Amino acid sequence: MYNPIFSSILLAIESQRVIELRMVRLAWGGREGLAEAQSMVIEKVHAAGEAMTTLMMGGTPETVIARYREHVAFNTKRLTAD
Q1: Are the beta carbons of 72 and 11 closer than 8 angstroms?
Q2: Alpha-carbon distance 80 to 82, whole Å?
Q3: What top-level branch of life does the organism fall under (predicted)?
Q4: Among 55, 70, 60, residue whose Cα is nearest residue 15
Q5: Spatial contact of 35 and 82, defined as CB atoms under 8 Å apart
Q6: Tens of pLDDT along 45-55?
Q7: Comparing C-alpha atoms, which of 37, 9, 38 is closest to residue 22?
Q8: DSSP one-letter code for 1
């Protein structure tokens, strides 16, 4: 049985790491900081549109949460690769 509350809690915990990594990059500024700020806005708009489309097409909130967790995992990997 799938537990959306557990998945939501994991998403919140995992997101904190991405927030930390992004804040450091933004604080350093320069080209990397500017690129991260632009990337962050673009990613958030894209993810919101994807979530809205998923729900409008009959997807479940659990599907949206799972996809957001994929985005968070990708960003964690990308931000820690440097």
Answers
A1: yes
A2: 6
A3: Bacteria
A4: 70
A5: no
A6: 999 999 999 99
A7: 37
A8: -
Question: If you search the block for the tokens 């964690």, which residue do you land on?
Answer: 76
The two three-digit tokens of residue 46, written as one number: 């894209």
Total Cβ atoms within 10 A of residue 64: 19
Task: Quote the DSSP letter at residue 60.
Answer: -
Locus of tokens 């894209």: 46
Maximum CA extent, the chain: 47
pTM to 2 decimal places: 0.85
Domain that holds residue 75: 4-80
Q: How many CA atoms lie within 13 A of 8 on its CB side?
A: 5
- Counted domains in the chain: 1
Judge contact between 63 and 79, C-beta under 8 A: no
CB-based contacts of 71, cutoff 8 Å, min separation 6: 43, 47
